[in-house]
Structures are given as structure tokens and as C-alpha cells.
Amino acid sequence: MIFSMTGYAARTRTIAxxxxxIELKGVNSRYLDCQFRVCDELRVVEPALRELIASRVSxxxxxxxxxxxxxxxxxxxxxxxxxxxxxxxxxxxxIRQVLPSAAPLAVSDVLRWPGIFGDQxxxxxxxxxxxxxxxxxxxxxxxxSRAREGEKLAAVIRERxxxxxxxxxxxxxxxxxxxxxxxxxxxxxxxxxxxSVDDERIRQEVAVFAARIDVAEExxxxxxxxxxxxxxLKAGGASGKRLDFLMQELNREANTLGxxxxxxxxxxxxxxxxLLIEQMREQVQNLE
Length: 288
Fold this sequence. Notes:
Blueprint: E1 7-15, E2 18-27, E3 32-38, H1 46-56, E4 60-70, H2 82-98, H3 107-111, H4 124-171, H5 175-193, H6 199-212, H7 216-235, H8 240-259, H9 264-284
Parallel strand pairs: 3-4
Antiparallel strand pairs: 1-2, 2-4
Helix pairs in contact: 1-4, 4-7, 4-9, 5-6, 7-8, 8-9
């Protein structure tokens, strides 16, 4: 299965004292880059979360958010811890007496202060295993999300591969006739320009030039690279880097086709090849 590096998942679970919420977001990155936003009460779980994610994800920039919401025992909105609020106000005054330029505590700062809504302690022994189990479920959803996106990207790439094969089939039968016509024109021009040179020498020079403009090898390599693209897509797994390399090789062959172009149709085909390759490369950049 092909995986995109773009994905999203969120899971919530009720535990003793409140509820856990885990959110995963993934975007493109050259390597695996994990960023964590874990509430202070569960900061201890971050190393285990990092290890769990690294075992399931090999590439991408991933953001993991873990929050714990304290449950209200009587179903009413939580009330402020007035004792703590009074202490905070006292500390704020004392600090600004010594440091007059210090900014006062903002309401948002106070509301985020640990314990401001009463007892918000978390039973770590219960919360940590629950958090890891919930993270596993979120990773399952995250993988499914990335797989759905990856299959769409793979379908786009396969479509471009089919178009490139069709384009190669269209131009291949025309190449011998175009070569023969071009070589004959070149031979006549050379003969008219240097009539003093032996006709056999002109034929030799034309034969050498004909070998240089032969694109059979480029078309064969192009087909081989397209076969490999399809094989990698079928094999699945972490394939982004391999496919990116194949895009470079395909582009190399398209450039050579363009440089050897003898007629307008082949030049147009080389341009379309490069356009299709660039479209595939854009999709490949999203694959794990």
C-alpha cells in the first residue's frame, strides 16, 4: 500500500478524572520530523509517544497534540480556585514592585495556570497507558487516512504513466521515416555544399550522424523506467524517495529525446513527456 505523508486523525477517551484527546496531523517533509504539544500533566508520556510514532511512520512532518480535560464532578462548569487566584495576584504585585516594567498577568495566562480550576491532578499510572493505547488507535486512523490519500496520488501517477506509454507508441512508428527523410535532406545539402568531397565520405558522415540522432535507446530506457514506476507503486511501502529518483531518470531521457528531435512532432512529444513527468514528480513529493 502506498502512503501519502498528508494525513489527519483525532481520538478522545474518557478516563478517571477527565478525558484524553489526541490529535495527529501530517504534512510533507524530507525526513521524519515529530513535533509534540503535550499538556504539562502528561509530559512524561512524550518519549514513549515518540517511540510509538517512529515505529509506525517513516517520513513526514508530524504534529502530535495531547490534551487532558478535567471532568466536573457535579456536571456544573468548573469554578475558579480563589485561593490560588489570590496568591497569583499577590505575586503579580510583588514582582511589579521590583520590576515596574514587567507586564501584568493576563487573564488568558491565569486561566491556563495549573490548578486554577481546582484539583486538576492526573493519575499518571492510569493516564499514561491509556494515552499510549489511544495514540495507537489514532495512529491506525492516521495510517488509514494516509493510505486513502496515497491511493489517490498513485492513481494520478499511473494515469500519467499510461499517457506516456501511449505517446511513445504514437511516435515510435514515425521515427524511421522521419530519420530517413531528415538524413536524405542532410545528405543532399552536404553534397551541394561540398561537391568536391567524395560521395562515399558524405555517406559515412551521414551514417555517423544518423547513429547520433537514433532515439531507440532512449525510448527503450523510458519504457524500462515506466515499468519500474509501476512496480514500485504495486509493491507499496515507503516508496517516495525511489520514485523521486525514477522521475529524475525519466526527465533525463525526455531531455535527450528533445535534443535528438528531428521533426516537430518529436519535439512536441518530448515537451509533453517533460510535462507529464513534472506532474508525476509533484505527486511523488507527497508520498512517504
